[in-house]
Amino acid sequence: MEIMKLSEMKRGETGVVETLHGHGNIQHRLVDMGVVKGTHITVVKKAPLGDPVEVKVKGCALSLRLNEASMIGVSCERGRQ
């Protein structure tokens, strides 16, 4: 497994949240939505230019801006969908 930014994951890939690099309100918003260390997260789809990114966390669909997705470090097995 490798650790990468959530923004680098491809549609259909699943990983586990390892780090959260946001500050202040952004970090609190992500935590409030359930994006915490150890949580499984799946990329459902990406907009044509990559922004926003739709992910699934704890059974809920979330839409994240690309800059928010780049703050989340995820361990992901490449090629596993």
Automatic annotation (TrEMBL):
Give the record's keywords alphabetically.
Iron
The answer on whether this UniProt entry bears the keyword Thylakoid reads no
Q: Describe the location of the Ferrous iron transporter FeoA-like domain by residue ranges.
A: 4-76
Record SMART domains: FeoA
Q: Which GO terms describe its molecular function?
A: transition metal ion binding
Which Gene3D superfamilies does its entry note? 2.30.30.90
Name of the protein in its database record: Ferrous iron transport protein A
